[in-house]
Specification:
Helix 5 packs parallel to helix 7, helix 12 runs parallel beside helix 14 and helix 14 packs parallel to helix 15. The protein is an alpha+beta fold.
Length: 707
């Protein structure tokens, strides 16, 4: 074992952290510790110049290199080269990875370090910035990467990889003194107090069960049905070109070379399979119907053949003639006629589809609870520019909404219809024509009284309904994704301390009137109150749906907390329905956030049906409370958003009655999920110690006051 004292903590290195396959960003937090902090010692050596590769470690190569005793490792990292050092069966806990490297100054920040599973799956990609490394002898830079950055979810690994993430020359990179440092001894976490007060006497506000929806999944992904989701949305870009008459034909739009394909690897999968799976599992169905005007004509055509349009920037690996519609000069190619891939899909096409569904429903009962009018029309000129190259305008959106909603209503008079499935903040306020021209100019909006798109749209729909006596829209549907750098969506997004904190803060854009969004938007968004205000002013009585939402880095605890925060806010703000995009990885923090509301004990324990006001002065904490109709059960979800400090929570239920029984379940990360937590029950007071960065469910039996 190597024991040595090192001069300066290399945790002063700046880091760039990526979720596997995701975007990069500089890391802060732990990796930005004071340069005066002492460096931990190596407890598990991997390689050093004196001894070479340590016992038990294997050289998995991949780049030209020298790795032997007598000198530092020499790596040729040109051509995005790298080195993998592996130890099969590796087990144990460490504080971080320590190493020294020397590279030509011209390479700049080029290095990426990651841990990998036995199969080679990367956990998190970390890019140390040389400018903040610790210089040591002979021109080397010393770097220490904490395990909180390299492996935040404490997943098993067997490999350490050093990789050039950008092009560098063939002049060698030297590597030395590589090893894991010892984990610090566990210390009792500091605690802070948090007082919460619930008032069950306030007017009951129903919580819609439809807010716990997802926008994907299948029986091949069992978590789609075990996480407690209440509904599934059939949607996304490809749904704009779905041809129900062909069984399962879509166009993949600019997501994948504008190709017509069989929409699922399962030849038996179709919209009918989707509806039947939902019925089987007791879930509602939200079905996106196309109003773009064109749908796939077959399962093999594509819009930009190289044989017709010439060389392009990229082509499909399995169909070299299918181009991406961008010339070698970087300019979009003007598309040919839509009929190359598509057939017209007027309102009658959708009417026939809905009639076909309702005919089957006559035997099985209603299968579609919500029809959604297409997907993100403000992006059609990009996602579907092969058939809709011109940006959508105010008038086109309204005309299509009226025509296609009327078609659905003719086929299904009791249908619930939602629209316009706006992609985000800009489309709430401007048409695509405005965005293309520049929102400072906003010519389309100025032609319509300079009124933001959503309130104008709602007002015109209500005027049409009053004129014709026919209901057009039942629910306003929009999408919400944080635009803050590093937050991400799906599995992408930063997991360093700064990105994690920003991810949680960014949820405030949904509800907090004082929060200035930390992205290019830079405004007080208060999305849910704003949309409800627009509804009240222009089309009273409409519901509100968040048709897509996601806070990125799904396998990180910060994403689970952000998800739990959003689900709680959807309940307190009276949202009608919401659909997470698309569905969480199995047993991930996001999965357990859903379970906290829908099946916290594994036996059907769930958040109740009426929202209970909760007052608190605690910082970095949220509490969402619910009760049943009789006021005899209270379920609360308590979030400790502080990553370092435990919370001594004291929940006062005097406004609800005395607590006759109490239990709690807590989640602090990892796959094991919600675990029992001791609580103290003193009549109308419940006390619990909740760990840093945790979500906790309180399940309480209550004897209502005065009964």
């Amino acid at each position: 074992m190597i024991r040595r004292a090192l001069p300066v903590l290399a945790a002063v290195v700046g880091l760039t952290v990526l979720a596997a396959g995701g975007e990069s960003r500089p890391a802060e937090g732990e990796a930005g510790a004071s340069a005066a902090t002492a460096v931990p010692q190596i407890s598990l050596p991997i390689f050093d110049a004196a001894r070479g590769l340590a016992e038990g470690w294997l050289d998995y190569g991949w780049t030209p290199h020298e790795l032997r005793a007598g000198g530092p490792a020499r790596l040729d990292l040109s051509g995005y080269g790298g080195l993998i050092l592996a130890r099969p069966g590796l087990a144990g806990g460490w504080g971080g990875l320590l190493f020294r490297y020397r590279a030509p100054q011209a390479y700049g920040d080029f290095l990426e370090v990651r841990l990998e599973s036995r199969s080679g799956e990367p956990i998190v990609k970390v890019r140390p910035e040389r400018r903040r490394g610790a210089p040591v002898a002979d021109g080397f830079t010393e770097v220490w990467l904490p395990m909180s950055e390299l492996n935040p979810d404490q997943r098993p690994f067997e490999r350490v990889t050093f990789h050039a993430w950008r092009k560098v020359g063939s002049e060698p990179v030297l590597l030395d003194q590589v090893g894991f440092t010892a984990a610090e001894a566990a210390k009792p976490a500091p605690r802070r107090g948090g007082r919460f007060a619930l008032d069950c006497r306030a007017q009951a506000k129903p919580i819609s069960p439809s807010i716990y929806g997802i926008a994907g999944g299948s029986e091949e992904a069992p978590q789609s049905f075990t996480m407690g989701a209440t509904g599934r949305r059939w949607g996304g870009n490809s749904s704009s070109r779905y041809n129900w008459k062909l069984g399962d034909a879509w166009n993949t739009n600019n997501d994948w070379f504008f190709r017509n394909v069989k929409g699922s690897a399962d030849p038996d999968f179709s919209y009918e399979t989707f509806l039947e799976e939902n019925r089987k599992h007791g879930m509602e169905s939200a079905l996106t119907v196309p109003m773009l005007g064109w749908v796939a004509k077959d399962t093999h055509s594509y819009s930009f053949p190289v044989s017709v349009f010439g060389p392009q920037q990229a082509t499909a690996h399995d169909q070299p003639d299918a181009g991406n519609g961008v010339g070698r000069d970087g300019k979009p190619i003007r598309p040919g006629p839509p009929t190359r891939t598509s057939v017209a899909a007027p309102p009658e096409f959708v009417e026939q589809w809905v009639r076909a569904i309702r005919e089957r429903d006559a035997k099985r009962g209603r299968s579609v609870q919500l029809y959604i009018l297409d997907n993100e029309p403000g992006l059609w000129h990009e996602t579907h520019r092969d058939v809709h190259p011109e940006p959508m305008t105010y008038d086109e959106l309204l005309q299509k909404t009226l025509a296609y909603a009327a078609a659905i209503r003719r086929a299904d008079p009791e249908a619930r219809i939602a629209g316009p499935a706006s992609w985000g903040w800009l489309e709430y306020h401007y048409s695509a024509a405005d965005v293309v021209a520049g929102v400072g100019e906003r010519p389309d909006r100025r032609r319509h009284g300079d009124v933001p798109l959503i309130p104008w749209y709602l007002r015109k729909i209500r005027e049409h309904e009053q004129k014709t006596g026919t209901k057009v829209l039942d629910v306003l549907d929009v999408h919400f994704y944080s635009q803050a750098e590093g937050v991400g969506a799906g599995r992408s997004g930063g997991t360093d301390a700064a990105a994690a904190a920003l991810r949680i803060r960014s949820t405030r854009a949904l509800w907090d009137p004082t929060y200035v969004d930390e992205s290019w938007i830079g405004e007080r968004m208060r999305v849910l109150p704003l949309l409800k205000q627009w509804i009240a002013e222009n089309a009273p009585g409409l519901g509100l749906s968040i048709g897509e939402w996601n806070f990125g880095a799904e396998k990180h605890q910060s994403s689970g907390l952000a998800t739990a925060e959003a689900l709680g806010r959807f309940g307190t703000e009276g949202v009608t329905s919401a659909y997470y995009w698309d569905f969480p990885p199995d047993r991930s923090p996001v999965y357990w956030a859903f379970r906290a509301y829908r099946n916290f004990d594994g036996k059907g324990g769930r958040f109740q049906d009426f929202s209970v006001p909760a007052d608190t002065s605690a910082s970095l904490a949220s509490l969402f409370a619910s009760r049943d109709a009789e006021g005899r059960k209270v379920v609360a979800v308590l979030l400790n958003l502080d990553p370092k400090t435990a919370l001594a929570a004291r929940v006062d239920l005097a406004g609800c009655g005395s607590v006759s029984a109490a239990r709690a379940f807590t989640y602090t990360g990892g796959a094991a999920g919600l675990q029992p937590l001791p609580v103290e029950n003193i009549g109308g007071i419940v006390e619990a110690r909740v760990e840093p960065y945790s979500l906790t469910v309180l399940d309480l039996a209550v004897s209502p006051a005065g009964r």
